[in-house]
Each structure stands twice: as structure tokens, then as C-alpha cells.
Amino acid sequence: MIAPSILAADFANLQRDLEMINRSEADYVHVDIMDGLFVPNISFGIPVCEAAHRHATKPLDVHLMIVDPDRYLEAFRTAGAHILTVHYEACTHLHRTVQRIRELGARPGVALNPHTPVEVLSEILPDLALVLVMSVNPGFGGQKFIENTYRKVERLAALRQASEADFLIEIDGGVNAQNAALLSQAGADVLVAGNFVFSAPDPEATIADLKKKTR
After folding, report:
1. Tens digit of pLDDT for each residue in 175-209?
2. Domain topology for 2-213
3. What's this protein's family per the entry (predicted)?
């Protein structure tokens, strides 16, 4: 599955870019929320998420790169989040956070920074709908893909099989036409692509090409 990140969209023409995603073969709209504390950047918040929800026909895949995400789970769910992903590194009581996301009617995801081993989620994997593996250091688009990600995805896929869980494995950062097939082969189910899609001459065709490479 492909999830274009609107962090790389033209904010002055966000409706236009969302309508392109609607027409495309994309599966989700990825929404990166940054607070300038958990990551050294500020993106956008609840009002933009609400606006995206009004115009998107694909589910919103909301990635909370923020401290104390529990304070905002209900607000982002109300704003239209279908998937709510929090960072392992930002949650003191991760199981409680995951349960709250389910109570709100969203699908819970947990993201891991590049330095965090997948094994830290072993006790909670059956409760998750998605695990997001950061393949760059979070905070900015356009970074170089971290090659160790392939091995990390393979380990996570092995844990999924061993635990008989059914969560999706999502990759975020530096995804392009060169690594899409390799990530899929390693066990990834969802690829987030921002700059690679929105800087392309034909973003819709680029999404279709990424989708084709993962089949």
C-alpha cells in the first residue's frame, strides 16, 4: 500500500493535491504532525487535519511526532484520523495509549525511531494495527534512507509471524523507486512517500509506479 505524505504537498494548494491523491492508486493519506519538541520541526496541527479530512476520500493515516500524545488523541480522532500512530519513545504508558486509541474507534499504530529496536514492542504487538519503522530520523522530509531499515523490517516481520499478530508494517522516510520493491520483499506493507511523489513531474503516475514495484 502507498501513503503519500502531505507534508511534502503544496500547502497553498492542499485541496488540489488531496484530489490528486483521491484519483491515484494511493491507499492512505499520511499526515505528519510535528510539535517542535519531540522533533526539531513544526508542521501543522488539528485544523489542517480537519481540512484534509473534508477533501480526502482515502483514510487519514495520522503520525503524531509529538510529546505527550495522549492529550491530543481524541482531538485528532475527531479531526478525521483513521489510523493514529504514536511514537514508542514519547509514551510512558504505551499499552494505555494504544487501548485509548481503540476506544476512540481508530486503528492504533506505534512508530519506532531509527535507533529503537523492534524488539521493544514484543509485548504489545498483538494489540497493534500498524508498526511504523522510521527509515530516516524524524522531523524533516527529503532525508537519505537508512540502509539498516531492511534488516529491521525483516526482524519485525519475523516477530509478527512468531506472535501470530496481523499488524501492518509501514516505512516512512526516503522511500523511492529504488528501494520500494526491496522494502516490500523484506516484509513491509505500507510505504510512505512525500518528496518523491510531490516533486515528481507526474505525482499520480509516480504513485502508480511505486504501487507496481511492490506487487
Report:
1. 999 999 999 999 999 999 999 999 999 999 999 99
2. TIM Barrel (3.20.20)
3. Belongs to the ribulose-phosphate 3-epimerase family.
